[in-house]
Amino acid sequence: MTAFREYANYDGLGLAELVRRKQVTAPEILDAALARIAALNPKVGCVPLRMDEFARGQLAAGRVYGPFVGVPFLLKDLYLQVKGSPLTNGSRLFDGMTCAVDFTLAERYRAAGFIFAGRTTSPEFGLNMASEPANLGPARNPWNLNHSPGGSSGGAAAAVAAGMVPVAHATDGGGSIRIPASNCGLVGLKTTRARNPAGPLVGEGWASLSVAHVVSRTVRDSAAALDATAGPAEGDPYWCPPPERSFLAEVGRDPGRLRIALQTKPNNGVPVHPECAAAATNAAKLCESLGHRVEEATPQYDHEALYDALWVLAAAGIAATVEMRLKQLGRALKPDDLEPATHALYRKGATLPIWHYTRCINAVHAIGRQIAAFYRNYDVASTPVTANPPLPIGARPNMSEPDWEKYAAELHRQIAFTPVYNVAGAPAMSVPLHWTPTGLPVGVQLGAAYGNEAVLFRLAAQLEAAQPWFAKRPPL
What we know:
38% of the residues lie in helices and 12% in strands. By secondary structure, it is α/β, with parallel strands linked by helices.
């Protein structure tokens, strides 16, 4: 495939170390990545927007440095603007758009040494746990091409699992980093609210529910990437407490004897597949063998208020995005601009009385206080990521459903464990500790108190050392 045949055997920091030692050049690494994308993407469908010449131009500019020097990187096709790059947000409404500015997060990725090689598949506006947008086609799971890699960062996770890149940009508004990481056997951290900047065009996504970070094959890549991007930008509306030390320094640090809460039954009462429950239970047993104290415990909060707030705030954000784009285009909305489920949520956001926004913000804050109280007694919570293993391509819920309430009800049966951390603003991570008998990955969610990514990195690194996953590769 390429002269640098060992490319996929390294994580991001490993590739950067090769560049620093002059054992391989950044152009050779990029050529290896682009060749792998060209060979595998026709099967996986996770990089619909190639940026080969953009990446080569970035290298040719000669200003590549940082902890990930010369490491190829893929950007999610959702909201993050990089000047001169394409962006569709998974929507026909944005087809043909070229970004006019650099977002602060993109500037920090570039400063870290990442080379932007393409955009990964996202469902329209990130509104599904599958990544099958009508405008660009579905992303497929490298572990089984008949199954979904998840969503909304499904293209990112599929690309990393397939070895196209070691790290990829991802976002999470209700589980959209953790779900694809779970489905694809990766590490996926949903960061604390405001850990990374969202500007300059907005101060927060979905009223603070949505955050951005990466999916990766190793814990250390996730930690180093967060070191490179974390911290407020000038003018940010608020920011979270700074960490005691670098996140990378937490990897390998003794976590001590942690108090871990095990939860296998979700607050909304939906049934959980035995493989997903087993993933969390077996992870708890592994934690006990490492000296941690585990007991069954469930945080108490109003799950109906949680889902209500999630979708009211998302609807407001979607309505604002659609109206902004229509103003740019100078026209009214056409019937085929949006997929049916998105159109239904847009109508909800455009017609809901404004006081519902404040009502839901108050609900978000109340749930955040309840989760904070739960973490007075526990350091970490361990749960399944989803209620079911990776679903087949085309499974429900899908964006062809025009009735939003029906669509949301289907979605709630799958995302039973993840949204509470978006609402509470607290960090949560999916780690790959379990595979089904048929070879599909099923992740375990580790949650922590607001601002405490450090404990997640310490525990995840300990689990990675005890039960390594890096050598596990999809049959693709």
